[in-house]
Amino acid sequence: MNISGVIVGLGNPGKEYENTRHNLGFMVADHLLEDAQRFSPDACSPLSIGKKKYDAWKCRIGTSRNFWLIIKPMTYMNLSGEAVGHACKYFDIAPEQVVVLHDELDLPLGRIKFKIGGGHAGHNGLRSIEQHLGSRNFNRMRIGIGKPEHGTVSNYVLNRFNKAEQAEVEMVLEGALKGIEAFVSSGFDEAVKTTNSFKLL
């Protein structure tokens, strides 16, 4: 199967984690799938891959003719690397062909940054992926959630977005979608330009 790369939405499976800040990567992946299927009903097809480490779809994104794998790890955040490592080995994908969509405490809600490589900054999903790929040289879409004013980070990231934030989240999902489309169609530099210039209205 000819796959150009893997797009990974990070999050935790289960109803109790839906729409939480830590699941913003899942939310972007879902938005990407919905948009691809609106563009063409045949743009995405689900894949069944052995042990259930992740949900997977083979998709054409935007106007691209190439197929990309979109996955959502079902291993819980701390073990995300098991899913990503399996997918990369199964489809013979190099780290440079991986795009990880993840929440980012060091950016406010409404900002998105695209980069390759770097540290994990305490993000357990990124840490696990680095361990299983044996490399930091994968692409990351850092999607801001901001830092808590009070309380612990662990409680903050597992809380849902409040009503005032919902409209902003919808715009962020669209901004992230445009960044992914830029990467797929035009490469890293265009993805950086598109995401780094994104701002809420």
UniProtKB/TrEMBL annotation:
Class of the enzyme per the UniProt entry, highest EC level: hydrolase
Active-site residues, as the UniProt record annotates them: 22
Q: Keyword check for Hydrolase, yes or no.
A: yes
InterPro entries documented for this protein:
Pept_tRNA_hydro, Pept_tRNA_hydro_CS, Pept_tRNA_hydro_sf
Q: What is its EC number?
A: 3.1.1.29
Q: Name one GO biological process term.
A: rescue of stalled ribosome
- Molecular-function annotations in GO: peptidyl-tRNA hydrolase activity; tRNA binding
Q: Where is this site: Discriminates between blocked and unblocked aminoacyl-tRNA?
A: 12
Q: Which residues bind tRNA?
A: 17, 76, 78, 124
Q: Which UniProt keywords apply?
A: Cytoplasm, Hydrolase, RNA-binding, tRNA-binding
Q: Mind telling me which PROSITE patterns this protein's record contains?
A: PEPT_TRNA_HYDROL_1, PEPT_TRNA_HYDROL_2
Name the GO cellular-component terms: cytoplasm
Catalytic activities: an N-acyl-L-alpha-aminoacyl-tRNA + H2O = an N-acyl-L-amino acid + a tRNA + H(+)
Where does it localize?
Cytoplasm
Residues of the site described as Stabilizes the basic form of H active site to accept a proton: 103
Q: How does it assemble?
A: Monomer.
Report the family membership. Answer: Belongs to the PTH family.
What role does it play? Catalyzes the release of premature peptidyl moieties from peptidyl-tRNA molecules trapped in stalled 50S ribosomal subunits, and thus maintains levels of free tRNAs and 50S ribosomes.
Q: Which HAMAP family does this chain map to?
A: Pept_tRNA_hydro_bact
Q: What's this protein's name?
A: Peptidyl-tRNA hydrolase
The organism is Halodesulfovibrio aestuarii
- What high-level taxonomic lineage is stated for the organism? Bacteria, Pseudomonadati, Thermodesulfobacteriota, Desulfovibrionia, Desulfovibrionales
Gene label: pth
